Amino acid sequence: KSGFISIIGRPNVGKSTFLNRVVGQKIAIMSDKPQTTRNKVQGVVTTEDSQMVFIDTPGIHKPKHKLGDFMMKVAKNTLKEVDLVLFMANADESLGKGDEFIMDMLRDSGTPVVLVLNKIDLIHPDELIGVIDTYRGLMDFDEIVPISALQGNNVERLMEVIKEYL
Ligand code: GDP
Ligand code: MG
């Protein structure tokens, strides 16, 4: 199984921390190499039975007012080209305009979206249930996976979920 995964989310939600944890060092060198004009490979994960190529999707995390119609189209087309979108959010912070903007883009993309709620090490499990409910009410995610990219909690589970969509 192999496929392309776009990992998007507001700054500081933990995207780089997650990638650093799962991406092999040797291949991480590729991360600065532009793949096409619009997709940038951030890292590749190769296991016995799968290969996952994580790419950056420019334009998706920019605030609405800074994006022209053309950039919006480019960003939306990129979403259609990947097998899966990982939408990463901070479980410890309330939703912002940035999250809403991203969800607007994802909602009608036709590509499966997994919500990754990161930084669960910072909140109480009871609180996490409320956070999950909030996101569920906003968008019909294909799957919701809480993790701690920093401590590694549930990261293996997330990798298994990703594989299901390749
Ligand atoms: P990015 O901007 O989305 O790439 O976010 P970074 O990976 O650079 O992380 C931003 C900050 O959040 C850094 O200080 C990380 O150490 C911290 N961070 C990332 N993941 C976690 C997590 O699971 N738990 C905690 N407590 N901090 C995290
Ligand atoms: Mg980063």
What can you see in these coordinates?
With about 170 residues, this protein is α/β, with parallel strands linked by helices. The protein has one domain: Rossmann fold, CATH 3.40.50. It is built from six helices and six strands; from the N terminus they run E-H-H-E-E-H-E-H-E-H-E-H. The chain has a six-stranded mixed beta sheet with strand order 2-3-1-4-5-6, with helices on both faces. It is globular and about 40 Å long. It starts with a strand and ends with a helix. The structure holds guanosine-5'-diphosphate and magnesium ion (MG). The site of guanosine-5'-diphosphate (GDP) has 15 residues, from helix 1.
Key terms:
single chain; 166 residues; alpha/beta; Rossmann fold; six-stranded mixed β-sheet; 6 helices; binds guanosine-5'-diphosphate; binds magnesium ion; GTP binding; cell membrane; GTPase Era; membrane; GTPase activity
**Quaternary assembly:** single chain
Mean pLDDT: 85
How many domains, in number, for the residues? Answer: 1
Q: Which strand-content bin applies to the residues?
A: 15-25%
Q: With helices defined by DSSP (H or I, 4 residues minimum), what is the helix count?
A: 6
Structural class by helix and strand composition: alpha/beta
In CATH's first tier, which class applies?
A: Alpha Beta
The beta-strand count equals 6
| Residue share in helix | 25-40%
CATH architecture: 3-Layer(aba) Sandwich
Which geometry do the CA atoms define? globular
Q: Which molecules are bound besides the chains?
A: guanosine-5'-diphosphate, magnesium ion
CATH topology: Rossmann fold
Rg value: 15 Å
N/C terminus separation: 6 Å
Give, in spatial order, the strands making up the sheet with the most strands: 2-3-1-4-5-6
- Give the biggest beta sheet: 6 strands, mixed
Order of helices and strands: EHHEEHEHEHEH
What is the name of the CATH superfamily?
A: P-loop containing nucleotide triphosphate hydrolases
